[in-house]
Amino acid sequence: MAAKTDYYDILGVTKSASPEELKKAYRKQALEWHPDRHKDDKEVAEKRFKEVNEAYQVLSDPQKKSAYDQFGHSAFSPGGGFNGQAGGNPFAGGQGGGWGPFTYTYSNSGGGSPFAGFDFSDPFEIFESFFGGQPSSGRSARIPRYSITIDFMEAVKGVEKEVDISGKRRKIKIPAGVDEGSSIKFEDFILSVNIKPHEVFERDGADIFVKVFIPFTLASLGGQVEIPTIDGVTKIRVRPGTQSGVLVRLRGKGAPNIRSRSRGDEYAKINVLVPDKLTGDQKELLKNLQEIGL
Fold this sequence. Notes:
The protein has 294 residues and is α+β, with helices and mostly antiparallel strands. It has helices spanning 7-11, 19-33, 42-59, 62-71, 126-132, 152-157, 216-221, 280-291; strands spanning 98-99, 102-103, 145-150, 159-165, 168-174, 183-185, 190-195, 201-204, 207-215, 223-229, 232-238, 247-250, 266-273. The longest helix has 18 residues, at 42-59. The protein is elongated.
């Protein structure tokens, strides 16, 4: 599987960034990596400039951003569920030297203007931004950043993956307990982790949450019920008179804490089921209970 650069890392923003913050970050990165400003290393600048525009095209579109937040880069791969929707592949249509709102051409004149060939009709008024901002001053190359999407249980238990980094196959170990958005620093790159949602479990840090449904008779009389955990099924005792919405804490049944050897807890939310259909005998029993005040 190929690891791609994380879009939030490219723009230097978090998932909670507002549209205005995204726009500001995009303008800053596009200005910094415009190929006409990197005459000595056009290839690197061209690649980074393309990544910046790709990132903004996705994150500035609410529909594409939602798909990316949930499924990562796989949302836009063949069969990923997004290509067939309106708008298609967010990276389609990029030809020659243009990606997204920005385009560029190279100037052949030595020492020419860094604005040569720039598309000044872009929506962010890039010309004004150039003259109003601070000039770039030969910053050192950044360590490459990539993202990978893994399953919920792979994040909880830890997993070894084989990825493609700059055309080379690499085996990497993702530690148990890694959380959504975590960044793992390897020797020559940084990896951001996206986690697929689970059909049963939800997670908040090292704590796991699960919904458990029980019949109202069990809630009233008490008894045992099976609870799913990341280690398998366990049984807990339900007290008589348990109300819907009660949280039952299972100590040490959560995810590993990546910063220590401890584990979080699991919280089972009890939901009492009320039948929507009753037999005649059942109705009669309930009427009898109702008459005695239950």
